[in-house]
Amino acid sequence: MAVLSFVEIADGKIKKASVEAAYYGSKVAESLGTDSIALVIGEAPADLLATLGQVGVKKVVQANNARFNSFDSKLYTKIVAQAAAESGATVVVLSFNNNGKLLAPRLSVKLKAGYVPGAVELPVFNGNTAVVKKNVFSGKASAEYQVATDVKVISVNPNSLPPIKGTASAEVVQITPTVADTDFTTVVKGVDKITGTIPLTEAELVVSAGRGLKGPENWGMIEELARDMGAATACSRAVADVDWRPHHEHVGQTGLTIRPNLYIAVGISGAIQHLAGVNGSKVIVVINTDPEAPFFKAADYGIVGDAFQVVPKLIEEYMKFKNAH
Amino acid sequence: MKILVPISKVPDTTSKIAFIENNTKFNPDGVTFIMNPTDEWYALVRAIELKEKQGGEVVVIHVGGAETEQIIRKALAIGADKAVRVDADPTDAYFVATQIANHAKTENYDLIITGKETIDYNSFEIGGMVAELLDIPAVALVSKLEVENGVATLKREIEGGTETVEVKLPLLVGAEKDLAVARIPNMKGIMSARTKPLTVVAAAGTDKLTTVVNYALPEKAKQCKYVSPDNVGELVRLLHEEAKVI
Ligand SMILES: Cc1cc2nc3c(=O)[nH]c(=O)nc-3n(C[C@H](O)[C@H](O)[C@H](O)COP(=O)(O)OP(=O)(O)OC[C@H]3O[C@@H](n4cnc5c(N)ncnc54)[C@H](O)[C@@H]3O)c2cc1C
Ligand SMILES: Cc1cc2nc3c(=O)[nH]c(=O)nc-3n(C[C@H](O)[C@H](O)[C@H](O)COP(=O)(O)OP(=O)(O)OC[C@H]3O[C@@H](n4cnc5c(N)ncnc54)[C@H](O)[C@@H]3O)c2cc1C
C-alpha cells in the first residue's frame, strides 16, 4: 500500500501546486498508516527532488528521461498508472492545476478509480470508503463525494491545505516506464510566458481592480501595491473587454478561478459572474465608493471610499508594516 | 471533418442555490437552466467555424432527461447539424463519459470539443475521461485551434503563459475563452433547428465510480467588517493580526 502524488517541475523549481499535492498525499498516507511516494516525470536534479521530504514524502520515483520532459496527457497517464501499480498505491493525488485537471480524469478511467476533482479538504476514511469535500456551483456550495473503489484519484484545489514543512529529505530512485512510440502524441512548438509577474493561479495575494479606476492610465497604484506586497494583479472582465488590462488577468465565470489567501478588490462592483472566480479566496477586502456595491456582501473587510485616496494610503501603511516586520 | 461537441445543462449563474431532501439533492425549483457557457460560446462555435471552412458535420451530444431538449435545440439553432440525447440522469462523471465514448466509438469523429468545465459541478473531468476511454490524445484549456491535413495546432494555457502544441487527429479538445466568438442564433437557425435530427438513445451500462452524499451551503453569510477610509492602517493591522494573511 502507498499514496502516490504526481509532482511537476517548471523553471527549475517544484511547482507550488505540486508541493501542496505532495503534502496532501503525505497527510493521506499518514492517516492510512502507509508511505507517501511522489512521482516526477522527466529530468530534474535529484537534490531538488529530495526536498519533497520536507512535506513528508518518503521516496521520490523519477522517470528521468528527456523524452518525457513535456506534458502529454496520454503518455503521462500511462506512466502514472504504471507507477501507481508498481508502488501499490491506493490513493493517487494530483493538483487541480492546468495539467492535473486533464491527467486526473484520464487516470481515473485507466485505473478504474473513483475521482474527486478539486478537493478542498483531506478525505475522511471509513474502511475502504473515502468521503472528500469539493466546491460546487462556482464556490457557492460544497459537495461531499463518496468513493468506494479500491484505488482513488484525488486532485487538490490550489491553496486549500498550506503545507507545513519539516527538514527531512526524500530518497530518490529512478524508474523506467514501458512506453511505445505511439504514446507520444503532443509536440510542443513554443512557449509564451508572461515574464516578471506571479502566475495568478499560484498567487497567495492578489490585488484586483475594475471599472472604478476610470482608465488604464490609473493602474500604476494597483501595480505598485501588488509589487510591494508580492501579489499578483487581476481585473474584472469589464476592463479586460475594453483592453484596459490584458485578458489573461480577468477572473470570474469566463476567466480564471482563483483561491488566494487574500483578494483585494478595488473599484469592482462584485457581479455574480465576477464572484464565481474569486469567492473561494480565504479573505476578501473590498474598496468601493458605493456602500451598496454587492461585493461588500462577500467581503471580510471593507472600506467605503475612493480608490484614488485609499490605495495610496494603503501602500503607505503597508510599507510601514513591512518595514516594521 | 466530423466533430462531436458534448454539451451540458447547468443552472443559470444568477440562480439561487438551495438543497432539498436532507441536503442530498439540488433544488431545481424556480431555476432557469442554460447550456454550459463554455460549451455554447467556445466549443460549439469553434466546431461550426471549422466545419464552415473545411466541410463536414457537427454533432452535439447531451446526457440528460427530456427536459433539456430546449437546450439541444438551441445548439442546433446556433449551427450544429445533428443532435444525440442519451436518455439518462447524469449522476456520475464516469457514467456520463462512458455514454459519450460509446457514441463516439461508432462514429469515428476527427475531433471532440468539450467546454472548459461546467459551472455547476466545476469538475473538468468529462473530457479527460472520454479521451482515455477512446484512447486518443487530449489537450485542455485551449484558446486557439487550427486544423490542417489531419494535424491540429493548439494554444493551451500553462501556469503563467501559454504553450503551442501540435497533435494528430483524432483528438479531444477542452475549450477555453478566446477559442471563438459566441454566436446568437438567428431566425433562420431557429426555424431550421426544429427539423434537424435529434436522436434519443438509451443509456448503456450503469457503472458509477462516485456518489455525492451531501451538499452544503457556506456556514454563514460573511459579515463584512468596515474600516474607515481615514484609518487605512487599521486594515493592515487586521489583515496581519486577525486574518493572518500578511
Ligand atoms: C455571461 C456573463 C459572464 C461574465 N463573466 C464575467 C467574468 O468572468 N468576470 C467578470 O469580472 N465579469 C464577468 N461578467 C460581467 C459582470 O457581470 C460585470 O459586468 C463586471 O464584472 C463588472 O465589472 P466592474 O466591477 O469592473 O465594473 P462595474 O460593475 O461598472 O463596477 C465598478 C465599481 O467601481 C466602483 N467605483 C467607481 N468609482 C470608484 C472609485 N473612485 N473608487 C472606488 N470604487 C469606485 C463603483 O461603485 C462600482 O461598484 C460576465 C457577464 C455575463 C453576462
Ligand atoms: C442529480 C445529480 C446528481 C449527481 N450526482 C453525482 C455524483 O454522485 N457523482 C458525480 O461525480 N457527479 C454527480 N453529478 C454531477 C454530474 O454527473 C456531472 O455532470 C459530472 O460529474 C461531470 O462533472 P461536471 O458537470 O463538472 O462536468 P465537467 O467535467 O466540468 O464538464 C466538461 C465538459 O464535459 C461536457 N459535459 C458535461 N456534462 C455533460 C453531459 N451531461 N452531457 C454531455 N456533455 C457533458 C461539456 O462539454 C462540459 O463542458 C450529479 C448531477 C446531478 C444533476
Structural class of the secondary structure composition of chain A? alpha/beta
User: Counting H and I runs of at least 4 residues, what is the number of helices of chain B?
Assistant: 6
Distance between the termini of chain A: 45 Å
Low-pLDDT residue intervals, each spanning 5 or more residues of chain A: none
Number of continuous helical runs of chain A:
8
Main pleated sheet of chain A: 7 strands, parallel
Q: Kindly, what is the distance between the CA atoms of the first and last residues of chain B, rounded to a whole number of angstroms? A: 53 Å
CATH H-level superfamily of the largest domain in chain A:
HUPs
- The beta-strand count of chain A equals 18
Rounded radius of gyration of chain B (Å):
21 Å
Q: Using the coordinates shown, work out and report the CATH topology of the largest domain in chain A.
A: Rossmann fold
